[in-house]
């Protein structure tokens, strides 16, 4: 069932990517690719700190809504989860790794126009992201044996900023906080498992 859902998500994104068609030359659609790192943690698994590092990469498509505004949709593979901090009494071996296929949609306010290159230098953005869980792996005793209880679907809020080095190269960072309990029920002093993480990435804009 998971493979069918993933194929459907990819198919819908392909349709969206094909929408620009003949209007692409009007410069309202802009496509790009992105790759970077995530730093994440889970609320309710007894571990604290953004110690779980992972990868995030994929494709993006933006549509200009005006001189300073964009609407963007992306298709990303992202890794998140949690990891025990390394210390005198901690081995750092307890970890949970979650792999997602993710579709964010967000609104951007751009500023600091570089007229020579016809691009904006900085911007602020926010929106929502839908994620589909591909796989779970955990060595945390609180979560071990409960892998099948993880929710397949996740909805989260996202807010961040970007800085463009050139018209083609951009650095983007953002914070993501889930609305969905990844596992329902009593855990470590909580009523469910929460997910939140930072992403730091570079983008190439075509």
Q: Low-confidence runs (pLDDT<50, min 5 residues)?
A: 21-25
Sheet with most strands: strand arrangement: 1-2-3-4-5-6-7-8
- Helix content range of the residues, please? under 10%
Order of helices and strands: HEEEEEEEE
Shape, per Cα inertia axes? elongated
First-to-last CA distance: 35 Å
Give the strand tally. 8
Structure, explained:
There is one protein chain. With about 210 residues, this protein is mostly beta strands. About 10% of the residues lie in helices and about 55% in strands. The protein contains one helix and eight strands. It has one helix spanning about 1-20; strands spanning about 30-45, 50-65, 70-85, 95-115, 120-140, 155-165, 170-180, 195-205. Strands 1-2-3-4-5-6-7-8 form an eight-stranded antiparallel β-barrel. Strand 1 and strand 2 (about 50-65) form a beta hairpin. The longest helix is centred in the N-terminal third of the chain and has 17 residues, at about 1-20. The chain is elongated. The two termini are about 35 Å apart.
Short description:
8% of the residues lie in helices and 57% in strands. The longest helix has 17 residues.
